[in-house]
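Re: the multi-chain job from yesterday

Posting the exact lines I submitted so nobody has to dig through the queue logs.
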Amino acid sequence: MRFNFLKNKFLLLIIAILVVLFLNSYREGFYQKKIKNFFYSLSLPLQENFWKAGINISDFFKTISNINNLKKENEELKLKNQELLSRVSELENLKNENESLRSALGLGLEKEFNLVMARAISKDISEDVIEINKGAKDGISKDLAVITSEKILVGKVSEVYDNFSKVMLISNKNSSFSAKISGKEVSGAVKGKGNFNFFLDLVSKEEEILPEETVISSVLGGTFPEGLLVGKIKEVKKSDIETFQQAEISPFLNINDLDKLFIIVDF
Amino acid sequence: MKNIILLLIFFYLLFIFQTSFLVHFPIRGWVFNLIFIVIILFNILEKPEKNNGILAAVILGFFWDIFSEKFIGYHILILVFLALLIKTILVRYVRIKIFQKS
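And the result, structure tokens for all chains:
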């Protein structure tokens, strides 16, 4: 009895290994892409509904749990709003000045991004990777940057199927890109830690980083355009032994904001 | 055969639920993984001589591979190994009557 049981299990294991080898060796994963694309097409309506329901229900519970903080938060936001309004008027003046200078110098307006809109439909269980409903047929290719409508950097396209794509979030452990502190010439690299967390690394020890400063993408790495929002500095870590300083980042990226996304096709 | 089709449909829906719905409810950054729980329960509760737990591991591993970046087969092997490990421990080291009855 025990012999048969073991024999059956090993038979199943051998079949599984053979299937794996076959699917991976034949035409460089051609069948894998076809199979995955078939299942994504089949699941799309259900996934879209589950994703929306997930956002709505989690928002509802968050509102209930945060009800005590709402008043305090509202007052803080009012103050911040006034501060921002005064900055907007300052910037408006600068913008007018800039435009008149540009026209005087004969320079063209800043090139805008060429965008494709997509929707997130699912997230990988074990990694910071999401799936979006646009693929090769919509002009998507590997390594394109993905942002939200608020210009928050989400990640880059890591795998492309006919109708779907996988997006590696900036919090993925394999993600690393160059970034800088907004309004300063301090640059470093943002590295993913998984579970929607990342940190700023490779910042020279001579540079000063302060909490609450905004981290934005830098064009140095060539993957992302300049000025996309990444997060705010939470805690700075300096050590005499280390060559560089590091900083924990409080991310702008939130799973519940990943509904409508934009892929930067050209910048 | 009917059982296999029912298992396929149930696990398929379970995966869509896990990847599109449950991901919105992280607890301290971690999302509840239904897949491991189902595999562990399936293999613990069934009679050690039966192979439904391994079949469940193959199906769930397949769907996990479909909805992840890894190649098809990666999670199948991990889950089948996990199922075999549970069964081996139950057959060799556990002597509780509840596991020996169907």
